[in-house]
Design goal:
The protein is of the alpha/beta class. The protein has two domains: 2-18 and 234-424, Enolpyruvate transferase domain (UDP-n-acetylglucosamine1-carboxyvinyl-transferase, Chain, Alpha-beta prism); 22-231, Alpha-beta prism (UDP-n-acetylglucosamine1-carboxyvinyl-transferase, Chain), CATH 3.65.10. 31% of the residues lie in helices and 26% in strands. It has helices at 22-31, 48-59, 87-90, 100-107, 126-134, 167-177, 193-204, 236-248, 264-273, 310-318, 337-343, 373-385, 395-399, 405-411; strands spanning 2-7, 13-17, 37-42, 63-67, 72-77, 84-85, 109-113, 138-142, 145-149, 159-161, 183-187, 208-210, 216-220, 229-231, 252-256, 276-280, 283-287, 297-298, 323-327, 347-351, 354-358, 367-369, 389-393, 415-420. The strands form six sheets. Strands 22-23-1-24 form a four-stranded mixed β-sheet, with helices on one face. Strands 2-15-17-16 form a four-stranded mixed β-sheet, with helices on one face. Helix 4 runs parallel beside helix 6, helix 5 (126-134) runs parallel beside helix 6 and helix 8 runs parallel beside helix 12 (373-385). The longest helix is centred in the middle third of the chain and has 13 residues, at 236-248. The chain starts with a strand and ends in a 5-residue tail after the last strand. The structure holds uridine-diphosphate-N-acetylglucosamine. Uridine-diphosphate-N-acetylglucosamine is lined by residues 23, 95, 121-128, 164, 166-169, 190, 307-308, 330-331.
C-alpha cells in the first residue's frame, strides 16, 4: 500500500508532456482484434490497465508486446481467437468490456464477465445489449457472464438509436458493426475525442464509417480489416488536470502535446476563474496570479463538460472566491470523494446530483483516501494548496490514470513524495 505525502503551498511552474489517452489506448488495443496480423499502437501510457488489457488479449490468443520506453504496443492477432473474457481480468478493469464488439465481429460469439468498475456508480450495459439484439444477436446472462451469440450468417446492419450518448455502448456497437452485413446507422452516439480516435483507427484498417465526430455514425460492413500502425490521441483529462493544477496553485505550466480543441469548455471555465490560457503550437500554457473565482460546472457528454474533470474542479472551487454549483449528470457516486475533501476543510454540500461548493481562503492538510482515479487527482490538487501536510491514500487508483504523477508534480516544484506504508513504521 502506497501513499503520497504532500506539503501544500508551492506554486507549480514548468513544463509537462501528456501521453496518449488511457480511455483511447485500451479501446484501440481491442480494435486491433478485428484484423488478423500485427498491429502497432503508439503513445500507449505505461499504466496497470494497459497491462490488464494486454493480458486479456493474450488469453484470447494474441501475442502482445508492450514497451514502456517507447510507449508502444505490438499486437499479433491469429486467424482463430477465443471469445471469452474471464472474470478475474474484467473485475480488475471495467474497460475489458471493450472486447465485446470485436469478439462478436470476429467470432460471432462473446462470453464476457459482467464488469465491476471503479466505484463511480452503477454503469449499466442495457444500451450495449439492446443495440446488439437489434443487429440480430441473442444475448443472455449466465453465471455472471454476458453471453452473446450472433446469427450463423452474422450480424445484420440496422438503425439503432441510443437513449443516451454512452461512450461504452457507442464503442461496442461501432466495433460490432464494421463487419456486419449491410449498413448500420447508430444515432445519438458519443462524440468524445476517444471515439473519433477509434473511428480513425478503424478507417485506417479499411472500415467504412461516415459521420465521424457527429451524433450519427453510418457504418457499411466490410468482409475483413487489415492490421495498421496507429498513434493514440493525447489524454485530454490528464491535460485538463494539469491546467487545473496551474490555476489552483497560482502557477505557470506549459502542457506539451495537449489539444486545446478537446478542452474547449474546461479551458473556458478556467479562464472565467481568472487563469490566462495560451494556445501553443504543440500544447497549452496556463498562468494564474491570484486566487481563482468559483465556477459553476454541469457534466454532460462531449462536447459538454467532462465528468472526469469534475472532482478536480470541485477541488479548485473549494479554495476559490465565491461559491459554485456543480452538477453531475453521468455517474451518481462521483460525489463520494466530497467527504474526503471535507477532511481538508472544504465546504461542500451535496444534494442528489448537485454539489454546492463555498470557497474558503485556506484548506488544512489531513489524511485522505482516493476512491477512484479522478477523485484521487482532485484530492492531490487540494492537498497541494492545503496548509501543512496531507497524506493521500489509495494511490493505486491515481496510478491508473496518471503516469508518474508525483514525480511530475515534484518537477514542477510541489513538495510530494511516494511512500509505502511499511516506511511509516
Ligand atoms: C467512459 C470512460 C469514463 C468516462 C465516461 C463518460 C473509459 C474506460 N471510461 O466510461 O472515464 O467518465 O466514459 O465520459 O473509457 N449507461 C447505461 N447503460 C449503458 C451504458 C451506459 O445506463 O448501456 C450509463 C452508465 O451507467 C453511466 C453513464 O451511462 O452512468 C455513462 O456511461 P458511458 O458513457 O458508457 O461511460 P463508460 O464507457 O462507462
Amino acid at each position: 500500500m502506497e501513499i503520497f505525502r504532500v506539503t501544500g503551498g508551492a506554486r507549480l511552474v514548468g513544463e509537462v508532456r501528456v501521453s496518449g489517452a488511457k480511455n483511447s489506448s485500451l479501446k484501440l488495443m481491442a480494435v486491433a482484434l478485428l484484423a488478423v496480423g500485427e498491429s502497432t499502437i503508439h503513445n500507449v501510457p505505461n499504466i496497470l490497465d494497459v497491462t490488464i488489457m494486454a493480458q486479456l488479449l493474450r488469453r484470447l490468443g494474441c501475442t502482445v508486446e508492450y514497451s514502456p520506453e517507447t510507449e508502444t504496443v505490438v499486437i499479433d492477432v491469429p486467424e482463430t481467437i477465443e471469445h471469452r473474457a474471464d472474470y478475474d481480468l474484467v473485475r480488475r478493469m471495467r474497460a475489458s468490456i471493450a472486447v465485446l464488439g470485436p469478439l462478436i465481429a470476429r467470432t460471432g460469439a462473446a462470453d464476457v464477465a459482467l464488469p465491476g468498475g471503479d466505484n463511480i456508480g452503477s454503469r449499466g450495459l442495457d444500451m450495449h445489449i439492446a443495440g446488439l439484439e437489434r443487429m440480430g444477436a441473442i444475448v443472455t446472462s449466465e453465471h455472471g457472464y454476458l453471453v452473446v451469440q450472433a446469427p450463423s450468417t452474422g450480424l445484420v446492419g440496422t438503425h439503432v438509436y441510443l437513449d443516451f450518448p454512452s461512450v461504452g455502448a457507442t464503442e461496442t456497437l461501432l466495433m460490432a458493426a464494421v463487419n456486419a452485413h449491410g449498413t448500420t446507422v447508430i444515432d445519438n452516439v458519443a462524440r468524445e475525442p476517444e471515439i473519433v480516435d477509434i473511428c480513425s483507427m478503424l478507417v485506417a484498417m479499411g472500415a467504412q464509417i461516415e459521420g465521424i465526430g457527429s451524433p450519427m455514425l453510418t457504418i457499411t460492413g466490410v468482409d475483413s480489416l487489415h492490421p495498421v500502425e496507429y498513434t493514440t490521441v493525447p489524454d485530454r483529462i490528464v491535460a485538463g488536470t494539469w491546467a487545473v493544477a496551474a490555476t489552483m496553485t497560482q502557477g505557470d505550466i506549459v502542457v506539451r502535446n495537449a489539444r486545446a480543441e478537446h478542452l474547449t469548455l474546461p479551458l473556458e471555465k478556467l479562464s472565467t476563474a481568472g487563469a490566462v490560457i495560451e494556445t501553443l503550437d504543440d500544447g497549452i500554457r496556463i498562468t494564474m496570479d491570484r486566487r481563482p473565482h468559483a465556477v459553476d460546472v454541469v457534466t454532460l457528454p462531449y462536447p459538454g463538460f467532462p465528468t472526469d474533470l469534475q472532482p478536480q474542479f470541485i477541488a479548485m472551487n473549494s479554495i476559490a472566491t465565491g461559491s459554485a454549483l456543480v452538477t453531475e449528470n453521468l455517474f451518481e457516486a462521483r460525489f463520494r470523494f466530497v467527504q474526503e475533501l471535507s477532511r481538508l476543510g472544504a465546504e461542500v454540500r451535496t444534494d442528489g446530483h448537485h454539489a454546492l461548493v463555498r470557497g474558503k481562503s485556506q484548506l488544512s492538510g489531513a489524511p485522505v483516501e482516493s476512491t477512484d482515479i479522478r477523485a484521487g487527482a482532485g484530492l492531490v490538487l487540494a492537498a497541494l494548496v492545503a496548509e501543512g501536510e496531507s497524506t493521500v491514500h489509495g494511490v493505486e487508483h491515481i496510478d491508473r490514470g496518471y503516469v508518474g504523477f508525483e514525480s511530475l508534480l515534484a518537477q514542477l516544484g510541489a513538495d510530494i513524495k511516494r511512500e509505502t506504508l511499511e516506511d511509516l513504521g
